[in-house]
Structure to design on (203 residues):
């Protein structure tokens, strides 16, 4: 394995670093974007039950705000519930924008890795071919070892770049889809809460 990396030349270093970063981002985002961690399904019914029973204390709102992202959005809306529907919606929207930003954290970096990895591989291909043609100009076509070295560098860096880019792109799309799905779910829960509070002003 080390011989293959060595044959690829110095461009293998940024490609390997990119692969390590991509793996770290993918694992971290899948862990963070778990449903139970973002928008547990039992949270809205629990909150609504406390609203109906008049047990919605400041301590409880602070707790759910810190526990999950959906909780932080619901808490932001409930804290403004006495000011009316529009105030609730504005507060929810502001908090939701912050949550969306946090959920999309590192995804741009993963997309960048998916974009630049094949370009690094292409650069390695170009440098390898330059090495081949330089050897031909200096030594002719008789030195097969030098020619093979340049061609090997070109092929290895191209393969390495694509090997990083393809999974990175797949997981970038998958994580982006997961973020969108979770945001839609949280939006639906917030709409349900606002509508329910508007329909029961005594709450």
């Amino acid at each position: 394995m080390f011989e293959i990396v060595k044959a690829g030349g110095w461009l293998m270093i940024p490609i390997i670093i990119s692969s390590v970063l991509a793996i770290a981002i993918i694992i971290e985002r899948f862990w963070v974007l778990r449903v139970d961690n973002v928008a547990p399904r039992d949270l809205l019914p629990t909150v609504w039950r406390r609203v109906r029973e008049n047990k919605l204390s400041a301590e409880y709102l602070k707790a759910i705000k810190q526990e999950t992202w959906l909780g932080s959005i619901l808490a932001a809306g409930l804290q403004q519930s006495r000011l009316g529907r529009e105030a609730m919606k504005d507060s929810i929207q502001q908090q939701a924008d912050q949550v969306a930003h946090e959920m999309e954290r590192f995804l741009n970096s993963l997309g960048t890795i998916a974009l630049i990895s094949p370009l690094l591989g292409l650069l390695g291909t170009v440098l390898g071919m330059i090495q081949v043609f330089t050897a031909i100009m200096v030594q002719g076509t008789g030195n097969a070892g030098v020619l093979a070295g340049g061609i090997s560098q070109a092929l290895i860096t191209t393969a390495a770049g694509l090997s990083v880019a393809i999974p990175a792109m797949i997981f970038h799309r998958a994580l982006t889809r997961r973020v969108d799905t979770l945001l839609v779910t949280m939006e639906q829960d917030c709409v349900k809460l606002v509508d329910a509070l508007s329909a029961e002003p005594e709450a």
Notes: The chain has a mean pLDDT of 85. The longest helix spans residues 144-199. The radius of gyration is 27 Å. DSSP finds nine helices and no strands in the chain.
